[in-house]
DNA sequence: CCGAATCTGGATAAATATCATCCAGGATGC
DNA sequence: GCATCCTGGATGATATTTATCCAGATTCGG
């Protein structure tokens, strides 16, 4: 799984803590986590395209959550970064069997192997969809949240 | 996910169909699915090390299932090929926070993010562990099994 | 005992995906 | 106007996956 998922999760949790009063520049988030600014920006762009973040260009611009943390699931986030493809990609090696008969109808329906892997993938997605950003930010210790607020200079007004 | 998982699944289902009367050479399995023989062999070796297949060297040697298909789960197979690491690897970017305080005990316990991703991974593994090779070979259409038996020249005695 | 078949495992190379940087363009606020 | 900041494409570096090859070791059949 791409490293950007971890980055995106941390950034989103942080944005949830900060509230969406004013956007946070990508460079500032990168600085916070000591991540490569340009590449983190690419990840945040992906989250923007997925409708998880909204971006405002220009001075005093940046990123903020596009909707309430309660309505952003981990599945949304993972899908935005990793893409919608399943982990198990079937390459249809079955059809390459030496005596494969193209006329056979058997190859049209998904086989048991693909179905089994798909079922497991669904269980994974379901679990991710059951957890929201709000859960994450609530589960973190208060001290972590306070530290983030302080670091971003929002300690007093929130 | 590595392509070898699909190969391994197909090979194991086929081996389950063929029974373990006599082993099947890797080259023959590769021929069956039109896969690169040398690389497929590497995958089968991994299954061997994981205790899913047993290999017999020498003439008339090859691979066979190490135990009954009912006792080989998809999780066994996937883990053997993909390795035991979880998809989500935490790189502890939290500790890189600008004001990270090494003395803080907060960094010792796993954070909410890692816990959430781990929970989803467990759901995936659980689903994989619930399905066995026997389920797969039973779910496949009879014609597929018959074709495999015929192709391997085992149509008469099984 | 000999030779063909077959696995083992390490070295190596090719192909691909991931990670990272850079830059020109456009938008926004001061 | 100018500094800030996002956008998106091009490009390069690095890591992983895929694939090949070869020198042993083992077994079988004759
Ligand atoms: S038989 Fe199933 S797993 Fe194999 S190639 Fe076809 S769909 Fe994929
Ligand atoms: S806070 Fe959680 S997800 Fe982030 S680096 Fe630490 S353990 Fe990993």
* CATH class call of chain A: Mainly Alpha
Characterize the largest beta sheet of chain A: strand count, sense, and whether it forms a barrel: 2 strands, antiparallel
CATH topology group of chain A = Arc Repressor Mutant, subunit A
| Average residue pLDDT of chain A | 91
Which SSEs are present, and which pair or pack?
The structure is a homodimer of 158-residue chains.
Chain A: H1 4-18, H2 26-33, H3 37-49, E1 53-56, E2 62-65, H4 74-82, H5 112-129, H6 133-139, H7 142-151
Antiparallel strand pairs in A: 1-2
Helix pairs in contact in A: 1-3, 1-4, 1-6, 2-3, 4-5
One iron/sulfur cluster binds next to α5 of chain A.
The structure holds a DNA duplex (30 and 30 nucleotides).
Brief characterization of the structure:
Chain A is built from seven helices and two strands; from the N terminus they run αααββαααα. Chain A is mostly helical.
Structural description of this entry:
- The structure is a homodimer of 158-residue chains.
- Chain A has 158 residues and is mainly α.
- Chain A has a single domain, classed as Arc Repressor Mutant, subunit A.
- The first copy, chain A, has 7 helices and 2 strands; from the N terminus they run αααββαααα.
- Chain A has a two-stranded antiparallel ribbon with strand order 1-2.
- In chain A, β1 and β2 form a beta hairpin.
- In chain A, α1 crosses α6.
- The longest helix of chain A is centred in the C-terminal third of the chain and has 18 residues.
- The radius of gyration of chain A is 21 Å and the shape is elongated.
- Chain A starts with a helix and ends in a 7-residue tail after the last helix.
- The mean pLDDT of chain A is 91.
- Chains A and B meet through α1, α2, α5, α6 and α7 of A and α1, α2, α5, α6 and α7 of B.
- One iron/sulfur cluster binds next to α5 of chain B.
């Amino acid at each position: 799984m791409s490293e950007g998922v971890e980055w995106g999760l941390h950034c989103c949790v942080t944005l949830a803590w900060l509230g969406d009063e004013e956007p946070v520049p990508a460079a500032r988030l990168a600085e916070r986590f000591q991540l490569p600014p340009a590449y983190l920006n690419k990840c945040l762009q992906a989250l923007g395209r997925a409708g998880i973040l909204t971006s405002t260009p220009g001075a005093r611009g940046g990123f903020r959550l596009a909707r309430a943390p309660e309505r952003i699931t981990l599945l949304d986030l993972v899908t935005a970064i990793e893409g919608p493809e399943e982990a198990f990609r079937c390459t249809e090696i079955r059809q390459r069997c030496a005596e494969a008969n193209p006329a056979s109808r058997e190859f049209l329906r998904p086989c048991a192997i693909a179905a089994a892997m798909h079922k497991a993938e669904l269980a994974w997605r379901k679990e991710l969809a059951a957890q929201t950003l709000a859960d994450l930010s609530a589960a973190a210790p208060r001290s972590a949240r306070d530290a983030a607020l302080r670091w971003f200079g929002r300690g007093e007004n929130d």
